[in-house]
């Protein structure tokens, strides 16, 4: 039997119940996507790790040289080159240097919530402004431009085609300004980084990197903060790794993969050209996983480059809420919180009303 995506999900903060059934009986199953396309659904830990770590599964369909852009969502040598250059600037030390600023901004936002009264929306009042502030700081966006930058980022994340052109034009202007006056931000480092074998990032690639950071960093971080905060309110404080473990797949999943040749996964033959969807929330919940590490940030060549930054943001938000608002509680049941699904790989609460 071929099943239809997406599966029913009564509790938006927990995996669809159907994943557990498939994981136990058919961890690589035939499904039909929301767009009506045939695909494979992967729900077990071992099968998910195998797909995400195997270079025979690509971001682009079989027979295509690339995904048609200059972002990190590429395959093969193109991706390897871009990732190597970006990693030279996106170092753990550089991210850790942002921690004091992130913690300070989180504290300011929660203090502002308290000053306004006894109710707030964690999406609007904490997660969104904290996430956009971090991305803006990374890219060196001036305070004067941050409202425009957020507007463009929101429209790009919502799939607004016109916004892509405006965002590209703004990014090109920002890159030009950083060339003239480099700063201490990530974008300035990306402009300056050089690799003896691969030269530098050209302007189109730099624009692609800005887009990658916004697509993978802004909205995903915002959603992660919100869902982690719901966990904090409902279940109390817990270790950060446990929080992130349970976030895997709830706020988003890896982009679909395409088999570039015939591959057998968990005893099932996936044919060249087939589309594959990996569900991290199902993989992380696999009883056979035992003590193996979570895959909330992916696995393999496309493991999330911003994992360390996301950890800092989530940690800062949760610690600040726990310290300053110990009586924090949801103002509406979890099941009544409105959620949006911008795509098969990105979803989160539209609002999280709270009181204290």
Uncertain stretches of 5 or more adjacent residues: none
The CATH superfamily is identified as Cytochrome P450
Overall CATH architecture: Orthogonal Bundle
Into which percentage range does the β-strand content fall? 5-15%
Structural class label:
alpha+beta
Helix content bin? 40-55%
Kindly, what is the distance between the CA atoms of the first and last residues, rounded to a whole number of angstroms? Answer: 48 Å
Oligomeric state: single chain
The profile of the biggest β sheet is:
6 strands, mixed
Series of secondary-structure elements, N-terminal to C-terminal: EHEEHEHHHEHHHHHHEEEEHHEEEE
Radius of gyration: 20 Å
Average predicted confidence as pLDDT:
92
Question: How many runs of DSSP E, i.e. beta strands?
Answer: 13
